[in-house]
């Protein structure tokens, strides 16, 4: 095999995300047009919450001013302290539990939701220091949080989510989303 063939083979290798995770989507979260979320579900049940590539935050020219995991006066996702095999201390979240609020430089604010029920294992504190990770690598280093659904619910949580194909149909039918 010569060098050209080898580089073509490398270019076609699937990413870690494509290889080990199944992508699920929630379109127009809580009725907000284009506020789409992506859930990356690993074979071990762990779910990584990210922004879908169609989310307004990821559109051209946007910059993130701040990210706040303080959901209410008494609830901060940063205070989530998980320990042990049974994940003691993890906050339990429901489908529509807010995870964080992201403010863009034009002062528009977006609330990012959990999309699934389960235990909040971790929030991505790296995006607090480097908010551009959210824009540059939304599916990897710029993820929002990691949630572990209950074992008995791990199959049923995807019933309310869209597959990639279903999501692409929804996106193709909508008119272009304009920033608010």
UniProtKB/TrEMBL annotation:
Highest taxon of the lineage: Eukaryota
Keyword Ligase in record: no
One BP annotation, GO: regulation of filopodium assembly
SUPFAM superfamilies in UniProt: Single hybrid motif
Subcellular localization(s) per the UniProt record: Cell projection, Dendrite; Cell projection, Growth cone; Cell projection, Lamellipodium; Nucleus speckle
Keywords, ordered alphabetically: Cell projection, Nucleus
Entry's Gene Ontology cellular component terms: dendrite; filopodium tip; growth cone; lamellipodium; nuclear speck
Protein family according to the UniProt entry: Belongs to the ABITRAM family.
UniProt protein name: Protein Abitram
